[in-house]
């Protein structure tokens, strides 16, 4: 899978996340058949154009522990992500050290990857409450 195909697969899968739900970078990587590429999922979303149509709900993708990833000093990206999630009804809490977190057991969307007859991976649509270790 080349870079353009990878990005397209990420964007297609992220569009499937229901409103009011979140998943992890690692789970998106698993769903597109590239389980060791969670960081690449983050990069694909980082380079997403705001003019992409139909829109891609980038805000629904979090770190493996349910944390909103920091965008570095001087960036308001984490706060924008929090605001977008809260607008969808997702509760975001702030931890002792200031990290913003979503309860994955409550808001997580983790359909199991399945293999079709042609050997391609897709999602079954079933929700499970699993947490990825590779994001």
From TrEMBL:
Keyword DNA damage in record: yes
One Gene Ontology term of the molecular function aspect: catalytic activity
Signal peptide limits: none
One GO term (biological process): DNA repair
UniProt superkingdom: Eukaryota
Methylated-DNA-[protein]-cysteine S-methyltransferase DNA binding domain span: 5-90
CDD domains: ATase
Acidic residues biased stretches: 126-135
Entry keyword annotation includes DNA damage: yes
Region (Disordered): 48-89, 113-135
Keywords for the protein's UniProt record, in alphabetical order: DNA damage
Pfam family, one: DNA_binding_1
InterPro entries, A to Z: ATL_DNA_repair, MethylDNA_cys_MeTrfase_DNA-bd, MethylDNA_cys_MeTrfase_DNAb, WH-like_DNA-bd_sf
PANTHER family on file: 6-O-METHYLGUANINE DNA METHYLTRANSFERASE (PTHR42942), ALKYLTRANSFERASE-LIKE PROTEIN 1 (PTHR42942:SF1)
Protein name, as recorded: MGMT family protein
């Amino acid at each position: 899978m080349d870079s353009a195909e990878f990005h397209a697969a990420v964007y297609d899968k992220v569009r499937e996340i229901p409103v009011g739900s979140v998943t992890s970078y690692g789970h998106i990587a698993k769903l597109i058949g590239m389980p060791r590429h969670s960081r690449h999922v983050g990069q694909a979303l980082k380079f997403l154009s705001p003019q992409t149509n139909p829109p891609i709900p980038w805000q629904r993708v979090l770190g493996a522990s349910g944390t909103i990833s920091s965008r570095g000093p001087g960036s308001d990206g984490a706060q924008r992500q929090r605001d977008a999630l809260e607008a969808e009804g997702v509760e975001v809490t702030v931890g002792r050290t200031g990290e913003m977190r979503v309860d994955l057991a409550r808001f997580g969307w983790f359909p199991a990857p399945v293999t079709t007859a042609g050997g391609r991976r897709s999602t079954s649509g079933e929700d499970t409450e699993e947490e990825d270790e590779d994001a």
